């Protein structure tokens, strides 16, 4: 059981009946047991032991600093990745209290660093709300770090302490005088715990930017001092590269956030509308703007947590938006008596909105605990947004017409799409006769055991068909141009042959029609050549899934197959290499004179046996599970990836393929 530590700020300590020394011992043992529990089951505290969990460590510490900002005591947070791979988070908050705590037999700071859930528990009154998805506290980061150094400046002094695997190896010591205040936590993620300790700067920057939007006025700086891996071998650059520094500061808050999301797009009005209000200790802030695209983007936050699965705040917003626009459009005679009301769906097209609510006791539900469940929030958001929109339309009536016009056009297109979708739906695989002709289906009928390989090109499709295990592996070869769904309306998307073939093979429908119980394969692999064209095709397919069947990604059904780039042979020994570095390491181990290297330019160059062995055999293959780690970053990346420049796309795919090739389930 985590220890109650409210006492640190002056409350009573529940002291045991036992003698003080025994009491001290018991508490110490509790701490050790707590840390041990965290190290035994890290997943329970930080999600997983892979890349996601690793990044979570940083978020956890940053969240503590952001809590200081929310409480009004901090406006600067600096996150630095050091050359040794450790990370420091420094803030200019009050500093963690340092005084000796008799009840605990140690300093307050040591309690925060060693007792589970200690960070947020005491002094609750001072914090309006608190960020952090798990809110597990810095002690968890401490337990999962091979070492952690704490530096606190407050009360005229500077205090330091070092921990190893969660256990203090020194007392909290006064190192000198200081008239500053703040906390720095520097930690080294334990490589005994994490399968990777390499931080991805894009992921970190994405979350830090988000936090800066959500906390206007706070400056969050990210510094990456690690040597650039691509320059590692080039000896001439002795100095290394300069540190990468990025600073995030937005006075405009979530209005700036919407401007950022819509950058480079035509918008129906400027600047984004912003609405805010509060009721029953719940604050609501919404910013929205329509752009010229066909997709809707809703980024919702509850206590700074990105609620990817939506929830009551999102439903409240939708109800209010639909009602306010219909009411105002009727009043302004933009909707005639004979016209039907605009529906929520009509109003989605081109909408970019950021919703941020802050509340006292958030309930997080859903598969990934990112769905806000508090029932009363719906009504609160509804009424604040409805009133706010009415005021906005009264003040700037000219913005209403472009919104209504766009929604009317969307409605017409949706009717066309419904017809096209009915065609596809009728053709979707309810029985074997409806399956697309090109599909080589598997014999197993249990979706949870079945895999579908979506393969580009006929020759690769042929190899895959011959190489597969037909018991549970189905092959769908694709031929022809894959539509860029990023730039098309649903009616056009559904009339595209390739899209229809995929939808029919999957059987589950798309968009609002998506039905998970009809999904015919629980593992879907995108298998394309390991070159720029293959990357492009993969991205087009990913876009289709991300925009129109996001549930497939959310539920962990989508994977990217990783074919090898090289086949290296030394005598009878054959090894496959999946990256340039892999090749370098492998040939270094072998005798170069007797080694032959074959480069695979495409999947088609592999014979069926090789394709099975390297890419499809569950025992040997390396696959990459597609996850939406950060919805905003994903959205942005699809922008980059679907844009005209090839170089950033190639770079992105090369970098990311390397990072994630350890995930099979
Ligand atoms: C407990 C109490 C107080 C501040 C903090 C913890 C605190 C924790 C962290 C973690 C990172 N940065 C932090 N900054 C502050 C309140 C202290 C007071 O009342 O003076």
What is the 3D shape?
A: flat
Distinct small-molecule ligands in the complex: 3-[3-(1H-pyrrolo[2,3-b]pyridin-5-yl)phenyl]propanoic acid
Strand percentage lies at: 15-25%
Name of the CATH class of the largest domain: Alpha Beta
CATH homologous superfamily identity of the largest domain: Histidine kinase-like ATPase, C-terminal domain
User: Low-confidence spans: pLDDT under 50, at least 5 residues?
Assistant: 1-22, 120-128, 658-665
Total helices: the number is: 20
Instruction: Give the % helix.
Output: 25-40%
Task: Tell me the structural class.
Answer: alpha+beta
What is the CATH topology assignment of the largest domain?
Answer: Heat Shock Protein 90
Average predicted confidence as pLDDT:
86
Distance N to C terminus: 32 Å
Count of domain modules: 4
Commentary on this structure:
By secondary structure, this protein is of the alpha+beta class. The chain folds into four domains: 31-250, Heat Shock Protein 90, CATH 3.30.565; 254-409, Ribosomal Protein S5, domain 2, CATH 3.30.230.10; 427-563 and 606-659, Rossmann fold (3-Layer(aba) Sandwich); 566-599. It is built from 20 helices and 26 strands. Strands 1, 2, 5, 6, 7, 8, 9, 10 and 11 form a nine-stranded mixed β-sheet that branches. α3 (51-70) packs parallel to α7 (201-214) and α12 crosses α18 (608-616). The longest helix has 27 residues, at 400-426. The radius of gyration is 28 Å and the shape is flat. The chain starts with 19 loop residues before the first helix and ends in a 6-residue tail after the last helix. 42% of the residues are buried. Bound molecules: 3-[3-(1H-pyrrolo[2,3-b]pyridin-5-yl)phenyl]propanoic acid (0RA). Residues 64-65, 68, 91, 93-94, 96-97, 112, 123, 138, 183 line the site of 3-[3-(1H-pyrrolo[2,3-b]pyridin-5-yl)phenyl]propanoic acid.
């Amino acid at each position: 059981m985590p220890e109650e530590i409210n006492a640190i700020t002056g409350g009573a300590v529940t002291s045991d009946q036992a003698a003080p020394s025994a009491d001290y011992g018991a508490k110490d043992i509790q701490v050790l047991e707590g840390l041990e529990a965290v190290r035994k089951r890290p997943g329970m505290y930080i999600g997983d032991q892979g890349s996601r969990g690793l990044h979570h460590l940083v978020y956890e510490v940053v969240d503590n600093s952001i809590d200081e900002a929310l409480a009004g005591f901090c406006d600067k947070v600096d996150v630095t990745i050091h050359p040794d791979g450790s990370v420091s988070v420094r803030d200019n908050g009050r500093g963690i209290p340092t005084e000796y705590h008799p009840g605990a037999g140690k300093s307050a700071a040591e309690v925060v660093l060693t007792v589970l859930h200690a960070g947020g528990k005491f002094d609750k009154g001072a914090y309006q709300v608190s960020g952090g998805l798990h809110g597990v506290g810095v002690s968890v980061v401490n337990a999962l770090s091979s070492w952690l150094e704490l530096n606190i400046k407050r009360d005229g002094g500077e205090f330091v302490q070092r921990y190893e695997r969660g256990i203090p190896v020194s007392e909290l010591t006064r190192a000198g005088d200081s008239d500053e205040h703040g906390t720095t936590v520097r930690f080294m993620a334990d490589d005994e715990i994490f399968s990777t300790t390499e931080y991805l700067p894009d992921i970190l920057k994405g979350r830090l930017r988000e936090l800066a939007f959500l906390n206007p006025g706070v400056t969050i700086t990210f510094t990456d001092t690690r040597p650039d891996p691509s320059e590692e071998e080039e000896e001439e650059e002795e100095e290394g590269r300069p540190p990468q520094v990025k600073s995030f500061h937005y006075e405009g808050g979530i209005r700036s956030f919407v401007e950022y999301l819509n950058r480079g797009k035509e918008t129906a009005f400027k600047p984004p509308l912003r609405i805010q209000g509060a009721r029953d200790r719940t604050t609501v802030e919404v910013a929205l703007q329509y752009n010229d695209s066909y997709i809707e983007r809703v980024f919702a936050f509850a206590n700074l947590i990105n609620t990817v699965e939506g929830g009551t705040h999102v439903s409240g917003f939708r109800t209010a938006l639909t009602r306010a626009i219909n009411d105002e459009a009727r009043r302004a005679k933009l909707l005639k008596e004979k016209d039907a009301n605009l529906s929520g769906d009509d109003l989605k097209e081109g909408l970019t909105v950021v919703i941020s609510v802050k509340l006292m006791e958030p309930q997080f539900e859903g598969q990934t605990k990112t769905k806000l469940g508090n029932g009363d929030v719906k009504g609160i958001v509804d009424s604040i947004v409805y009133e706010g929109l009415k005021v906005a339309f009264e003040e700037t009536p000219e913005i209403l017409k472009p919104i209504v016009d766009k929604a009317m056009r969307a409605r017409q297109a949706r009717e066309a799409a419904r017809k096209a979708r009915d065609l596809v739906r009728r053709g979707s695989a309810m029985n074997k006769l409806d399956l697309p002709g090109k599909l080589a289906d598997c014999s197993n009928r249990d979706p949870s055991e079945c895999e579908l390989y979506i393969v580009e090109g006929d020759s690769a499709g042929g190899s895959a068909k011959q190489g597969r295990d037909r018991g549970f592996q189905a092959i769908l070869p694709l031929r022809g141009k894959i539509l860029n769904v990023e730039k098309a309306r649903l009616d056009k998307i559904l009339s595209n042959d390739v899209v229809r073939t995929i939808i029919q093979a999957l059987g589950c429908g798309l968009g609002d029609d998506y039905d998970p119980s009809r999904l015919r394969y629980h593992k879907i692999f995108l298998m394309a050549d390991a070159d720029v064209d293959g990357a492009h095709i993969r991205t087009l397919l990913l876009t289709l899934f991300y925009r129109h069947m996001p549930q497939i990604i959310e539920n962990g059904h989508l994977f990217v197959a990783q074919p090898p780039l090289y086949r290296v042979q030394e005598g009878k020994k054959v090894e496959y290499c999946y990256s340039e570095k892999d090749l370098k390491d492998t040939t270094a181990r072998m005798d170069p004179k007797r080694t032959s290297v074959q480069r695979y330019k495409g999947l088609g160059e592999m014979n069926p046996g090789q394709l099975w062995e390297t890419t499809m055999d569950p025992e040997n293959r390396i696959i990459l599970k597609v996850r939406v780690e950060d919805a905003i970053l994903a959205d942005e990346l699809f922008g980059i990836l679907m844009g005209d420049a090839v170089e950033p796309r190639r770079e992105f795919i090369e970098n990311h393929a390397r990072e994630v090739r350890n995930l099979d389930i």
